Every structure is written in structure tokens, then in C-alpha cells.
Amino acid sequence: MVEIANSAVGRGASVKDAIGKRAQAKATSLDGDAFAPLTALPASQWRALAERTIEPNGYYLPDWELAVNASARGRTGASALSAWSDAAPDGAARLIGLVPVVSMWRAYRIPLPALASAEPYGTLCTPLLDRDMAKDAAARLMQAARQAGAHALILRDVSLDGAAMKAFGEAMRQGGLHPLALRSHARACLDATRDSEELLRDALGAKKLKELRRQRNRLAEHGAVCFDVARTPAEVAAALEILLRLEASGWKARRGTALMQHDGDAGFIRRAAPALAERSQCEIVILRAGETPVAAAIVLRHQGRAFYFKLGIDERFAKFSPGVQLTLELTRHLCADPTIATADSTASADHPMINPIWRGRFAIGDVLIPLRQGDRAVSLIHAALTLRQLVRKLTRRLLAISR
């Protein structure tokens, strides 16, 4: 595979690293490196871009992604692929596009010359593009990737029909390029402009809602049921510890995915959540029975969209469906908020809890963006990713059969 990759690229550089440190030095912009360590990006420019972005992504807000990059397991050391405007009269350039990236080797353990969007501990990697210069920003991000030595840019977990991908599509058509779809699925979302009670009746039906009310009444036998929202940094920091304990007490801990099980993951979320709360971009919702927290979740906010992240429940109350009860209250909470238009579940396809409640759907997936016309390396990259997907599907089927 390495010999084939070297032949396709036509040079003897290290394919394992795919994009080396020397490439970062030559991909420069008027205001700094267009391919540089994520920590080198001016935070003020990043925040300003997040306010102007054409499509929101709470997981690429600077306070979140920098915390992930600092300590989260397997997610540190990302680079910033950035696009900058031409210099203004005062000589300053403006950040107009950003996607945190890693090499294809880091992302897939495939030694080929491509960059992939970095996983931000949330299943959304939509790039930030200036709404007034979206197509230009996308084109400049592609140019920066080329200058960094990449032959393709792999955008993982992006909204396929969203404004950001439309901008990339326009930039590709202008350059005579065509995207290659790698995988896609439908993900649950909430139309928060609707009346919550009407929405829940339509989604669940009268019979299911009656059963959930019965479970809530049974839960109330353990104490009055209340729904709390932590908003200030101090409130969020305290509520976060409740969420971490709930998550660590259940099946996520048994599977090894609870945040508190790993110092780096716990450190990232303890840094990110209060910092985002300073800017009203994070809140933690808790459902209690009396003084006992039975469910909690983190909600990120960016522009008019909310992002549902990391639900934890007390499994002693499992028969009362605490996760569902919390989600019903969160639905009412978001629908009552005039600043929120939609909510992304950031859940997997066919998620058994959220899909029956949030009946909206949007397409999300991975896209391979070629950076040069007629590039043989892109065909090789696409073939390697396709083969990887087939092997993973076959492995999952074999494991299911063996059980």
C-alpha cells in the first residue's frame, strides 16, 4: 500500500504522516499560516468567524474545540486549515473559513496524502464559513489544503444539504471538481419553532404519552419531579459533576465511554462547559425526583441551533424512563425559547430513544473533496476508504453472528 501511495503521489515524502510539518510552513496567508497547529489560530478571529458563520456548529466553537484539542483522548494535536480574506485598507486580513483537521493517517490509519476534519467529541464537523464570503472561503480552504500537500480533503459528519456543503459544491464546480460521497444516514432533529405539546402528540401519540405520564407519576413517588436548567458558569460547573457521576454509574462506564473514566476527557469537558457558559453557549439540564438527580444532559448553543450532547441517567430509576422524561422536558424547554429554531440530536442513525421523539430528519455523512482535476491519488484514497468501510461492515456482521 505504501509503495502504491508513493507512486500515486509522485514523491518520496513520508506517506504515514501524509502531511508533514514542512507543509505547514509553506501554506501561509496574509494573517499567518493557513495550515498550522490549532492553538496558533487567533482566538478572537475564531470567535468572530463563529458569529458570522453560514451554518452553526457548536462543536467547532473555540472554547469547545480547543478544550478537546488540549486533552481529550485521541483528539489532541489537531491542525487548523484556515481561509483568510484579502487585506483590508488597514493591512489586516479576516478569518473567513476554518476546519480543524488531522492527517488521513491519524483519522483512518491509512497512509495516503489527505486531510480529514478532526473529531470534536461530537458527531458534527461542519466547517465554519463566513456567510458573506462562503464560496470564496470554501475555495480558499481547498487551496490551503493543496498548498499543505494534500490531494483530498475529507469532511466527516457534515450536514450534506446544509449551507456549508452547498458553498463547497459551488467552489468545486467552479474548479471543475466533483465531490465523492463516502457514507450518509438520516439524523434526528427538532423543529423548535413548533408548539411542543402538538409536536409531542404527533410524534408519540396519545397512548404513548399517557404511559409516559404514568411513569412520571410513579417517579414522583420518590419526590416531586422538577426540571432544572444550569446556565451560569458556576451553575454549569456544579451541574456537570452531577452529569459525570450519573454517566459513570451506568452502561457507559461498563462500555468504557464515560467521560469521568479518563482524565483527559474529564479535563476537556470541565474546561469547555463553564467557558461556553460564559458566552451563553452551554447549559446543563437536570431532571430530579425530590433531591435526587435521575437524568442530566449537556446542551450546546450556537446561533439559532441547539446541540444535544451526553445524556446520563440513574439506572436505579430505569423503569420510569428518566432519559425519555428528560428529553420531553428539554423539547418543551427548547420550543419555548424564541432564540432556538432547531436542535440537532447529534445521535447515531436509528437511535432508539431520540428518533421516536424528534421526528425531523436531515442527511449527515462523509464527503471526499478532490483538490486537483484528474488526480490518480484521489482514486486511490477513495478506494482505500471504500474498502475500509466494507471491512468494518463485514466485521460487525461477523461479530453479531458470533454472539
Helix-strand topology string? HHEEEHHEEHEEHEHEHEHHHEEEHEEH
> N- to C-terminal separation?
33 Å
Mean pLDDT over the full residue set: 91
Overall shape: it is globular
Low-confidence parts lasting 5 or more residues at pLDDT below 50?
A: 1-18, 20-32
Classify the beta-strand content into a percent band. Answer: 15-25%
- CATH class descriptor of the largest domain: Alpha Beta
Q: For this entry, what is the oligomeric state of its chains? A: single chain
Tell me what the CATH architecture of the largest domain is: 3-Layer(aba) Sandwich
Radius of gyration: 22 Å
- Biggest sheet features: 13 strands, mixed
How many individual β-strands?
A: 15
CATH topology of the largest domain: Aminopeptidase
Helix content: 40-55%
Helix-strand category: alpha+beta
Instruction: Compute the number of structural domains.
Output: 2
Number of helices, counting only DSSP H or I runs of 4 residues or more:
13
Give me the secondary-structure topology:
Blueprint: H1 2-9, H2 21-26, E1 28-29, E2 32-33, E3 35-37, H3 43-52, H4 62-71, E4 79-84, E5 95-103, H5 104-108, E6 114-117, E7 128-129, H6 134-147, E8 152-159, H7 163-174, E9 180-191, H8 196-219, E10 225-230, H9 233-248, H10 251-255, H11 263-277, E11 282-289, E12 292-302, E13 305-313, H12 322-335, E14 342-344, E15 360-370, H13 376-402
Helix pairs in contact: 4-11, 6-7, 8-12, 9-11
